[in-house]
Amino acid sequence: MTAGHVPPIVDSFLEKVRQALYEQGLLFRGARVLAGVSGGPDSTALVHVLSRLQKEFALQLGVAHVNHCLRGEESDRDALFVQELANSLDVPFHMETVDVAAARKESGLSLEEAAREARKAFFSRAMQEHGYDFVALGHHADDNAEWMLISLIRGAGAGGLSGIPPVNGKTVRPLFKLTRKEILKYCRENALKWVQDSTNQDQSILRNQIRLHLLPILESQYNPAIVPGLNRLSNILREEHLWMDGMARDFLEDHAKPIKNGLELSLVHLVKQPLALQRRIVLQAMAEVRGNTRKTSWTHVHDVLKLACQGKSGSQVHLPDGLEARRVQRKLEFILHDSPDWARTPSQPAKEWRVVLDGPGTHQIPQAGLTLVCYEEEKTENFLLKEDPMEVCMDLERASFPLTFRPWRPGDRFTPLGAGGAQKVKKFLIDHKVPAQDRQNIYVLTNEETVLWLVGQRLAEPAKILSETRRILRCKVFLA
Amino acid sequence: MTAGHVPPIVDSFLEKVRQALYEQGLLFRGARVLAGVSGGPDSTALVHVLSRLQKEFALQLGVAHVNHCLRGEESDRDALFVQELANSLDVPFHMETVDVAAARKESGLSLEEAAREARKAFFSRAMQEHGYDFVALGHHADDNAEWMLISLIRGAGAGGLSGIPPVNGKTVRPLFKLTRKEILKYCRENALKWVQDSTNQDQSILRNQIRLHLLPILESQYNPAIVPGLNRLSNILREEHLWMDGMARDFLEDHAKPIKNGLELSLVHLVKQPLALQRRIVLQAMAEVRGNTRKTSWTHVHDVLKLACQGKSGSQVHLPDGLEARRVQRKLEFILHDSPDWARTPSQPAKEWRVVLDGPGTHQIPQAGLTLVCYEEEKTENFLLKEDPMEVCMDLERASFPLTFRPWRPGDRFTPLGAGGAQKVKKFLIDHKVPAQDRQNIYVLTNEETVLWLVGQRLAEPAKILSETRRILRCKVFLA
C-alpha cells in the first residue's frame, strides 16, 4: 500500500493503531488474535484495521460474537451482520448464543454485568479451543473517559479511577488511543457498515447517561479537551495503582502466612507502614482470601484498620461474603467461612441496631458501611426507575417518615411485590438463593413495623406505586 | 454548658469540629490560632465555633481579615462586619487593606490567585508579628468536592485530585468534615449574621460554575451522595500522594547530587524504578531546582523520561521558567538558567515548527506541550469571556481557517488590542516584563502572516469582536 492511495486520515488512524501495537507491546508478531465483535462501529473498525495489519504483524485473526438474545430480532440481525463481516474479511467466525436474561436470574447480577460475564466466558473458551493468544476489544478513549466518570460518580478509589487498561492479561485494546469521532470517520472513509444497538440510547443505563448527557455538558461548558485529560489522568493513576499494589503484594509475601481458610498478618509490621500502604495491604489480603474485592467498601477497610490498631485480642469485624477479620494477640487473621452457618454461631451474634430517618436526605449508616439517600419527587407520566436493585421508588404517602433502617431479624415477615401474600423474610432469602453467609448483610427499610423494602432484593407490596400516587419517595443505597 | 441548653444539631456540629481537632491533631492545647475570616457563613461559623471551644482547648484566638478593595463599598462593609464580629467575641482583630487589582497587574496572576497570594502573605506576616502558631480557614467538605472537580476538569494528576488538605504546614481547616448545609444550619440556629460576597454568583469564575451548575447536576441526576464520595476519594488519594512523594524524595536524597544551579541524577538508578516512581522523581527534581511545579505539564515529564531513556549524551529538553534537563553521559542534569540570555545562546536555538489548523476542534501541539481547542459559536447579547489569559474570543470572519500556531519569531510584529498601533512582539514582551527565559515559551496564532493572538498575553486588534460580528471563534489553550 503506498501513501498516495489512501486519504491522509485513514493513514493517521492506521498509524495510531500500529503505534499502539508496537509501543505498548500489545501483540507479538505472529500472534493469534480473537477480535470480540458486537457489530457496532468500534468493533467493526477494530477488526477491519487489524485485518489491514494482518500481514505486517503476521497475525492470525478470528472474530467472536455473542448473541445475548436480549433484543429479539435485532440480536439475530447483529449476529448475521458480524458473520458476514468475518466472511468478507476471510476470517474465521465463532459465535455463541446465550440467554443472558435467564442466566442473570440465577446469578443476581445486573443485565449489563451478566452479558459481560457471558462474553468473557465464551471468549475464554474459544481462545482455549482454537488456540488464540489474545482477545482484542474495541474500547477507545471516550469509553475510558466515560468509565472514569462512572467510577467517580460511584465513589471509587484510585483503582476504579485508573480506568480501562490497554492491556490486561490476555485482553488487549488496540483502539485505546482513538476517539469515537476518529472511529466513525474511519468507518465512513472506508465505507464500513455497522449495526446500532438500540440499548445504547437507553438512558436508564448509567453509562448511556454519562455518554449522552454528562460528558457533552463537560465538553461544551467546562473543557472541550476533557476526554484527552481524563485519559492522561487514567494513564498516570493506572501506573501508580500498579506500583502501589505491587508494594502491597510484596508486603503480603513477606509478612502474611497462610492459615486454615485464610491468612494471618503480623501487626508489628503492618502498623509501621504508611497509612496508604496499610489500606492497600488490607484490601489485598481480603481479595486474596475471598478471590475478589466485590462488595468491599471503604468502611470495611477502615474498620479492619481500626481493629488492627485498637481492637482487643478476640475482637472481630464481619465482612461481606462470609469473610471475617479477627484480632488474635499480635496478629490479624482473615478467615473465609465456608460453613453457611458460621455467622449464626453464638460467638458471633448479629448486632442489634437501627437508624431512624426523620426525613429525606443523605443518611450515613456506618453500621452497614452504607449511605442511604432518600428524596421526594413528583410522579411524572413515565417516572424513571433504574435497573438497579439498590434503588426503589415508593408511594410517599404509604412510605411516610419516620422510617427505620436495620438488619433483618429472623422473625421479620413481609409481602414481596407481586408475590400475592406475606411470608417470612428468611424463607424469601432461602427461596431466592441468597447464600447463608450473605444473609447477615441484608437490611430492611420499615415504616413502624411494616417492611417496605428488603434492601437490594425486593420492594414490598405496601410501598408500591399506584395509579393514584402523586408523590414518590426514591431511595438508593451506596457503599459508604 | 449542659446538653439540655443546646439544640441537638448544634451539639453535632460542635462535636464534629471537636473530633477534627482531636483526631486529626489539628491544634495542640494552648495553641495560638489566627482565624482567617472573610465574613461569609463558613468563616463566621468557624470563628464562632472556635470561640466556643476556646476554654476546652485553652486556645488563644485572633481574627484576620484582608480587604481586597475589589468590590468597592461592599468590601468595606465586609471589613467592618468582621471587625464587629471579632469585638463581639472579644477576640483581637487584625486587618490589612491591599489593592489586589493593582498588585495583580504586576504579577500576571488571575484576580483569584492574586487575592489568595495577598491573604497568604498577610496571614503569614500577622502570625509572625503576633506570635500565632496556626492559621485556621473555613474550607469545608463541599469546597473540597468542588476543588476536586476543578482539578479533574483542568486535567490534574493525582496531586490535584487529592484535594484540599485538612492540615498543611501551619494551616488548619477545622470544618473540613462539615458540609455547606450543616454550616448554614449552624449559623441559623445560633442566630449568626454573615455577609454575602457578590462575586460568589459570578458564573465566569470556574469555581462558581462548578458550585452553582455542575455539582447540582451530579447530585440530582447521578449520585446524591457525590460530595461525601469525593471527600472519601480525596482522603484516599491524599494519603497515597503523600506516600509516593515521600518515596520520590527518598530516592532524590539517595541518588541526586547538587551541581551548580541544579542537580544531577544517576540514570542507572532512575530507570530501574517503576514508571510511576520515575515520573514522580522527575516532577520532584524539577520542583526542587525551580522552587515550584507551576507550568509543569505531563508532556514535560514525558519528554524528560524520553531523554533519560533514549537521548544521546549532550541532548537536552527545554522546560518552562528557564529550566533545562540535559543528558550527560550516564547522568541527567537539571539546571536553572538565571542568565536571561541562556535560551538564546547559539547552542540552543529555538526550533522552527508550525501547526496548521484546518478547522475547529481539539488540536494537540506536542512541540509546545499544549492542547489548543477552537470552537465556533453564535455571538449572543452577552457572550461570556472568561477571565483567563489562555482563552480568547475572535471574530470568526476575520480569524478564518486555516490558522497557524507556532512560536513567535524575533521579526514578528502585531497590533495589541487597544494599543493603537503595530509594534514588535519582542518589544511587547519586554514592555510587559515577560522574563527572558519565559519568552521561548510564547506562541502566536496567525492567519496567513497576521498575528491574531499572542497566546497567553494579548489579543490582536485585527481579531477583535465588533458590533457587527455574528459568529465567534473561541480558542483556549490547555497544558497537554
Automatic annotation (TrEMBL), chains A, B:
Keywords per UniProt: ATP-binding, Cytoplasm, Ligase, Nucleotide-binding, tRNA processing
Domain Lysidine-tRNA(Ile) synthetase C-terminal: 403-475
GO BP annotations, alphabetical order: tRNA modification
UniProt-recorded Gene Ontology molecular function terms: ATP binding; tRNA(Ile)-lysidine synthase activity
Binding residues for ATP: 38-43
Enzyme superclass (EC): ligase
EC nos: 6.3.4.19
Subcellular location: Cytoplasm
A GO cellular-component term linked to this record: cytoplasm
Catalytic activity from the UniProt record: cytidine(34) in tRNA(Ile2) + L-lysine + ATP = lysidine(34) in tRNA(Ile2) + AMP + diphosphate + H(+)
Family note: Belongs to the tRNA(Ile)-lysidine synthase family.
Domain comment as written in the entry: The N-terminal region contains the highly conserved SGGXDS motif, predicted to be a P-loop motif involved in ATP binding.
Function: Ligates lysine onto the cytidine present at position 34 of the AUA codon-specific tRNA(Ile) that contains the anticodon CAU, in an ATP-dependent manner. Cytidine is converted to lysidine, thus changing the amino acid specificity of the tRNA from methionine to isoleucine.
Family matches, as HAMAP family: tRNA_Ile_lys_synt
The protein's name: tRNA(Ile)-lysidine synthase
Taxonomic path: Bacteria, Pseudomonadati, Thermodesulfobacteriota, Desulfobacteria, Desulfobacterales
